Amino acid sequence: MKVVVLTGAGISAESGVPTFRDADGLWEGHHVEDVATPEAYDAQPFVVHRFYDARRKALAAVAPNPAHHALARLEEALGDDLLVVTQNIDDLHERAGSSRVLHMHGELLSAVCRACRSRSRWERDLADLPPCPRCGTPDLRPDVVWFGEIPYEMDRIYLALESADLFVSIGTSGAVYPAAGFVQQAAAYGARTLELNLQVSEVTTLFDETRHGRAGELVPAWVEELLGR
Ligand code: BJW
Q1: In Å, what is the CA distance from 177 to each residue of 32, 149, 150, 213?
Q2: Does 10 belong to an annotated binding site?
Q3: Are the C-beta atoms of residues 126 and 142 closer than 8 Å to each other?
Q4: 167-226: per-residue pLDDT in tens?
Q5: Same domain as 202, residue 90
């Protein structure tokens, strides 16, 4: 059985990573839509750098939770038949042991040079304008996908959705496209669809089945069920 899992901020919430649109979703009074655009970066690069530098630093203090670990166990069982598509820029899936993960909105631990377009693994701050390791230009930005930019890996994601038997969405509000449209694409190609979320999302009605609760409980239970244990 081929399974595609889409994850959003809700899967990392119990690890202590704030979501975007829940009660604690504001950052220094900004909505994510105010800081996650190329226009915001051009207008106030230091505000945007501080937002991402703070989140990159905070990664060191968080750890994968039972939901991330359960998906890693599912990969052990299904191998290439599981693909995790994450909108999250943290590295908690990888730290739990998952390797088949596509970061469609980029990664906190990566920087992209606006001069030479090269992408480099990046663990330090960017606000102090360090030089690009490849070309030396001090014009690195977070390697993340902002509103109006094209998400990464779309070809591989659409191909996986076309052949999926099961599409599962975990902890995402369905407020942001194209990810919010994956349920309809997967269903159109014949997949069964399941949503696991703390509460009703903007696309809940599009799923064959929805379960409400915390990802740290729902995901391990669903994985055990799928593996017939
Ligand atoms: C729990 C839980 C627990 C909490 N357990 N659950 C009109 C129609 C269609 C599209 C558009 C449109 N107008 C504009 C667009 C396009 C635009 C868009 O979608 N805008 C919307 C505002 C409408 N999209 C884009 O611009 C995208 N690009 C694009 O479309 O390019 C064109 C193209 C596409 C495809 C092929 C070719 C071309 C780019 C979008 C980029 C989004 N970037 C961000 C920032 C990334 C970097 C960063 O992290 O800072 O991505 S914005 C932010 O939102 C981030 C997230 O990945 C994304 C989604 O958020 P998520 O993960 O859903 O979090 P929340 O907070 O919203 O929800 C958390 C959920 O968890 C909630 O449901 C809780 O209930 C739940 N929860 N605790 C279980 N313990």
Answers
A1: 15, 11, 10, 24
A2: yes
A3: yes
A4: 999 999 999 999 999 999 999 999 999 999 999 999 999 999 999 999 999 999 999 999
A5: yes
Residue 69 falls in the annotated catalytic set: no
Q: Is 164 labelled a binding residue?
A: no
**Same-domain check for residues 11 and 98:** yes
User: Under 8 Å CB-to-CB from 61, ≥6 apart: which residues?
Assistant: 16
Q: What is the CATH number of the domain that holds 11?
A: 3.40.50.1220
Whole-prediction pTM:
0.97
Q: Distance from the CA of 126 to the center of ligand 1, in angstroms?
A: 24
Is 66 touching ligand 1 by the criterion CB < 6 Å?
A: no
Instruction: Quote the ligand 1 centre to 112 CA distance (angstroms).
Output: 21
Q: Using a 6 Å cutoff on CB, does residue 227 contact ligand 1?
A: no
Domain containing 115 equals 19-61+111-144
User: Does 11 share its domain with 89?
Assistant: yes
Q: What is the residue whose two structure tokens read 């119990």?
A: 14
Whether residues 12 and 23 share a domain: the answer is no
CB distance 169 to ligand 1 below 6 Å: no
Pair 132, 213 in one domain: no
Give the Cα separation of 46 and 44 in Å (integer). Answer: 6
Q: Are residues 45 and 68 in the same domain?
A: no
How many structural domains does the chain have? Answer: 2
Whole-Å CA distances, 185 to 40, 108, 178, 196: 31, 28, 10, 18
Q: What is the pLDDT of residues 30-66, one digit of tens each?
A: 888 888 999 999 999 999 999 999 999 999 999 999 9
